[in-house]
Known about the structure:
Blueprint: H1 2-7, E1 19-24, H2 31-38, E2 45-50, E3 53-58, H3 69-74, E4 81-84, H4 85-96
Amino acid sequence: EVHAIAACRPFGTIEPGTTHMVALLRDQPSTAQAREIASLSGELDDLVVIEREIHWHIQGGSLATALKPKDWKRVGISLTTTRNMTMLTKLVTKLDG
């Protein structure tokens, strides 16, 4: 699963100074929830749901996000863990080594 997540690039090439995070969910959100999650996208954040992952492109570092815990609660999502794509890519390299 880690290999597939790390290989997924819904935003294409990530420009320097921006961040690609992946929020891992326990369960796959419903179609309606996935639409609501995507609707949280804005000027600083772009969100794409792929199966049990939320791919999150932030314009800046991870602290630059405009999203707050209340936004996630509003769409009925309880984030389990979120990881930077850079870290996931390094993990895959380590697993393959």
